[in-house]
Amino acid sequence: MPLKLVLRPGEKLIVNGAVLGVGDHPVSLFFYNKVNFLRGREILKEENCDTIEKKLYFIIQLIYIFPEDAELNLIKFGIILEEARLARPEENAIFDEIQTLVQSGNYYRALKICRKLFPAESSSMSADGVEKAAKAPVVVTKVRRRPLLNQPE
Which residue ranges run through the membrane (predicted)? Predict the structure, then answer.
């Protein structure tokens, strides 16, 4: 059974290290074999790594997307994980789960769990620190048509 991803117009995707972009129309992609992928909203840029939790997420992301550099990044992962444990000892159970998932090669699941550790930010900011566009409230009005004068009924 293939994996199906539906991407919105303008959305980006990383597949096995290659960045893909979507044009003006929604796109459905089917993957028939194993691929490492992250959708644009799941990608964290290095310059947005302002907390230890985001640094941990970023290093797992690098291990997942660039397996050719995994050996070096796994060493960095261990260092960052220990820093995170010292910074947030109350989250040790989550860090244990992330470590187990990384050691077993389940990087995508480790990323999902790690993202839950991100500090809550203002509603105008997304999880990766990019400011969201402010959405105007939707106002619904009912327009009544007046009958035209001098029209036969």
Answer: none
